[in-house]
Amino acid sequence: MGLLVFSSCCILFHAATTTVTSTATTYRDTTPKVVVSSKNASGYNFRWPGPIGHRVITVDANGGGHFRSVQDAIDSIPDNNRMNVLIQISAGVYVEKVVVPVTKPYITLQGAGRDTTAIEWHDRASDRGPNGQQLRTYRTASVTVFANYFSARNITFKNTAPAPLPGMEGRQAAAFRISGDKAYFSGCGFYGAQDTLCDDAGRHYFKECYIQGSIDFIFGNGRSMYKDCELHSIATRFGSIAAQDRRSPYEKTGFAFVRCTVTGSGPIYVGRAMGQYSRIVYAYTYFADIVAHGGWDYWNGADNKNKTAFFGVYKCWGPGAAKISRASLAQELDYEAAHPFLVKSFVNGRHWIAPSDA
Ligand SMILES: *[C@@H]1O[C@H](CO)[C@@H](O)[C@H](O)[C@H]1NC(C)=O
Ligand SMILES: *[C@@H]1O[C@H](CO)[C@@H](O)[C@H](O)[C@H]1NC(C)=O
Ligand SMILES: *[C@@H]1O[C@H](CO)[C@@H](O)[C@H](O)[C@H]1NC(C)=O
């Protein structure tokens, strides 16, 4: 690529002096060659180059790699990273709390398989952090990503705190929090109970992932597509899958579940209106017979969320499917209304997700 890049402080990146290799990050490699022009908050145009160059770091708990811990590997990457960095993590259980800071985009965590490589920790919302304050839900995640262009493949993320009984307080325990934009996950496992996956902010694509939990186990204000994922409930007396936190009609956030399977134990609500303008759609999804009467929940009855939240269903099936469409709070969508939630343009995926991911 022979492209020059202008940032606001006039640094030039001479891309011609480096090469972009395309061996390891297959679905990203279409991206770096595209220079995207966009406007910053003051309306100036700037050009975004994508990452330049490529590097592999290995992590092995037994000492056979560059590092023994995942965080050590991330710490070794300089701030303002501009390279595709593949962190290859050998089979094993890595008991550590991991953070990918906002200054380190373009990192991929790749495990040896969802069943063989896991990162796990055990913080709960009521636990106290180093400053003596309670962590609260968002800071419990075993792995937290603030950076953009993160991806993870064939690896599991767990929070191993014991599952709470319904009504117990302070037991939220996230396995993973994604707060960066344009994150791609494939073949990953997310294991927890209450609040497993914090789909906090940004555009995200989850492909063939396994997500397990009991209460609101996918939650936040992300704009995300879940494709071919298994959503597995371990609820004992009552549970819920997705709690989406869209707060205004101008936000483009929402959760689209496409061709997923809903399994496990119930009864569960399939969606809850965490934010006033919550948006949740299930399409072509299988539901085992674990759906609670009514199917969905407005979180509380006080603020007329029944007028502002959007729960949609399109061509779902299985023994539990009737409970989320007919006689539920959701709308049965027609093709026209469902279409925006079925395609990767829901997350603007055309520029950052490979053509093979429809
Ligand atoms: C937008 O870009 C212009 C020109 O590069 C710069 O002067 C300005 O500070 C930038 N504004 C923001 C909010 O980043
Ligand atoms: C991830 O796992 C799947 C299923 O085992 C396998 O087909 C794929 O090649 C793996 N991908 C990588 C990058 O290891
Ligand atoms: C919405 O809920 C309020 C009370 O929370 C109720 O008075 C109202 O009739 C409901 N509206 C619809 C359209 O169901």
From TrEMBL:
Q: Which PROSITE patterns match?
A: PECTINESTERASE_2 (PS00503)
EC class: hydrolase
Enzyme Commission code: 3.1.1.11
| InterPro entries linked | Pectin_lyas_fold, Pectin_lyase_fold/virulence, Pectinesterase_Asp_AS, Pectinesterase_cat
Q: What stretches pass through the bilayer?
A: none
Domain Pectinesterase catalytic intervals = 57-349
Catalytic activity reads: [(1->4)-alpha-D-galacturonosyl methyl ester](n) + n H2O = [(1->4)-alpha-D-galacturonosyl](n) + n methanol + n H(+)
List the subcellular locations: Secreted, Cell wall
Q: In which pathway does it act?
A: Glycan metabolism; pectin degradation; 2-dehydro-3-deoxy-D-gluconate from pectin: step 1/5
Residues in the active site?
D216
Name the keywords, alphabetized. Answer: Aspartyl esterase, Cell wall, Hydrolase, Secreted, Signal
Q: Where is the signal peptide?
A: 1-18
Coiled coil residues, start to end: none
- Gene3D superfamilies linked to this entry: Single-stranded right-handed beta-helix, Pectin lyase-like (2.160.20.10)
State the similarity comment. Answer: Belongs to the pectinesterase family.
- Full protein name: Pectinesterase
Organism for this UniProt entry: Stylosanthes scabra
